[in-house]
Amino acid sequence: xxxxxxxxxxxxxxxxxxxxxxxxxxxxxxxxxxxxxxxxxxxxxxxxxxxxxxxxxxxxxxxxxxxxxxxxxxxxxxxxxxxxxxxxxxxxxxxxxxxxxxxxxxxxxxxxxxxxxxxxxxxxxxxxxxxxxxxxxxxxxxxxxxxxxxxxxxxxxxxxxxxxxxxxxxxxxxxxxxxxxxxxxxxxxxx
Length: 191
Hints:
5-stranded mixed β-sheet, alpha/beta, 39% helix, 191 residues, 9 helices, 16% strand
């Protein structure tokens, strides 16, 4: 996908939508890529990803981490334009993130635009993974890197589309392992 054009956002009703972002620097609002993975009732996943021009400087650390720099986002939409086509979809579904970083980044980016972040429903695949694989506590943990190895997930870490898909796959693996749905695995107080 070119930086200037947005892909078609998946349509329909999904069980949940996993979301991941990459940032240009240590400022959480500096989103330079957004990816989502929409999980259908049959377990199939439809993905969507776009580069975002964060309109801030890029740190060399972040560029080394995800490979996205100022050249890649030239001509990409800013956050307001990138998130607009996602808003109807995200408002109708539970959003799964892997840790709380993605939600904080989205809320920060909305703040930069002068808008309050929508009151979307959020869940955390780390919480789900902790319930499905308690043996990983103190033994590699529940980060995507360790889960990739333990669950034989195939994805390129630190790409928002790939990480969103990986978070969705963690949830699906946890459901199969425990026999519980994601809502039960999230339990009360999912935020």
